[in-house]
């Protein structure tokens, strides 16, 4: 039976023939003339046989790795510092640093090996590190309030809605259960002009007036919204005159004229 091998490789039959003549005591030069291959090839076949006791190719584990373990950890450190980078950018940086040309899919395989996966970044308000502790203290101060207290609270807020499309998605490379870490979040700021915004109010009792905002809202427009909708909504909900107004710290909400109006018109 003839054993087929890859091109430019000596067949198994010829290798066996070389070993057979070598065991009979023939010299490498004589074997080279008999099997019609170079003396250098004969020497390599015999040397390999002495080490492995076989003329067959030793099975390989696969294609050799492109990056060493140290280089892989360098790639992981880059992602840890900046999860919003991409595999393409990492490939270019690795090529510049290690002088190795590779495919971005190789970098993705390395990241998956270390449990990093591409995910859409969660959106969160653009807040500083001091804000979470302040919000926690605020929540603790209200956690034991009775239901009667919350029945009289009127919450107001604005939200932006896109009629067509979206604001886009930001991908991050992160580990599982790390979506809420600061570096894995996409900051969101208060919307500006050119987008459709809606003001609304709600309480534990009911949901009431909606006000559509055209253009960019400023403190004067926000004050007009409060004048037109706040008392009317509270009356429809049946929480007038003892309701409590709760709103966020938007610059328009905290404007002096708005706070002054709320001081004299809200219980």
Automatic annotation (TrEMBL):
**A GO molecular function held by the record:** DNA binding
Q: Provide GO CC annotations from the record.
A: nucleus
Q: Which residues form the Transposase Tc1-like domain?
A: 75-143
The family database entries (InterPro entries) matched by this protein are listed as: Homeodomain-like_sf, RNaseH_sf, Transposase_5, Transposase_Tc1-like, WH-like_DNA-bd_sf
The subcellular location is:
Nucleus
Biological processes per GO annotation: DNA integration; DNA transposition
Name of the protein in its database record: Transposable element Tcb1 transposase
- Record the organism: Araneus ventricosus
Q: Which gene encodes it?
A: TCB1_3
